[in-house]
């Protein structure tokens, strides 16, 4: 047990977050996402399971440590709803709130069409599979940097 760490941050997930470099991407997916087959092509090679967490809980835990990339326009992306890409289901709105809380400002989610999202996931550093059962509960986070003291 460690102090001041979200209990959802498993040893495996902590290791992945620490090993990721600037610009590496982490996919956070729902329970229906093909995490096992797509994770084989990622750097990590297998999904990290957070089966007891939903997407907003996992987002809050991950972003408590992972800085989002400030050098790209959209460091956080969502899987767009298939027949209505502008729709923002509850799971997207709740993850947006978690992102904004972690960033300390509004940081709007970008959108990726479902099959474009799958392609993006294939080149991610790692895939984190949650127990989220709501549809479209899939997201990509690009790792940023932590500036030196005084910068």
List the helices and strands and how they pair.
Blueprint: H1 11-19, E1 25-29, H2 35-39, E2 48-50, H3 55-63, E3 76-79, H4 90-103, E4 110-112, H5 114-122, E5 126-130, E6 139-142
Parallel strand pairs: 1-5, 2-5, 3-4
Antiparallel strand pairs: 1-6, 3-6
Helix pairs in contact: 3-4
- Report the portion of residues in β strands: 15-25%
CATH top level?
Alpha Beta
Q: Write down the overall mean pLDDT.
A: 97
CATH topology description = RbsD-like fold
CATH architecture type: 3-Layer(aba) Sandwich
Tally of separate domains = 1
In DSSP terms (H or I, runs of 4 or more residues), the helix count works out at 5
Q: By CATH's scheme, which homologous superfamily applies? A: RbsD-like domain
Helix content: 25-40%
What general outline do the C-alpha atoms trace? globular
Low-confidence stretches: none
Biggest sheet: strand arrangement: 2-5-1-6-3-4
- Element order, helices and strands? HEHEHEHEHEE
The oligomeric state is single chain
Nearest-angstrom radius of gyration?
14 Å
Account of the 3D structure:
The protein is built from five helices and six strands, in the order H-E-H-E-H-E-H-E-H-E-E. With 151 residues, it is an alpha/beta fold. It has one domain (11-139): RbsD-like domain (RbsD-like fold), CATH 3.40.1650. The protein has a six-stranded mixed β-sheet. The radius of gyration is 14 Å and the shape is globular.
């Amino acid at each position: 047990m460690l102090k001041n760490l979200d209990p959802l941050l498993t040893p495996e997930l902590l290791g992945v977050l620490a090993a990721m470099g600037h610009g590496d991407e982490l996919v956070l997916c729902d329970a229906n996402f093909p995490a096992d087959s797509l994770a084989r092509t990622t750097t990590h090679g297998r999904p990290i399971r957070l089966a007891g967490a939903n997407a907003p809980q996992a987002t809050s835990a991950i972003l408590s440590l992972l800085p989002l990339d400030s050098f790209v326009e959209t460091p956080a992306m969502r899987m767009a709803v298939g027949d209505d890409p502008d729709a923002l289901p509850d799971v997207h709105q709740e993850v947006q709130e978690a992102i904004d809380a972690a960033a300390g400002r509004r940081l709007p989610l970008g959108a990726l069409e479902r099959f474009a999202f799958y392609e993006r996931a294939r080149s991610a550093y790692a895939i984190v599979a949650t127990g989220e059962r709501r549809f479209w509960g899939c997201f990509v986070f690009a790792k940023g940097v932590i500036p030196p003291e005084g910068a």
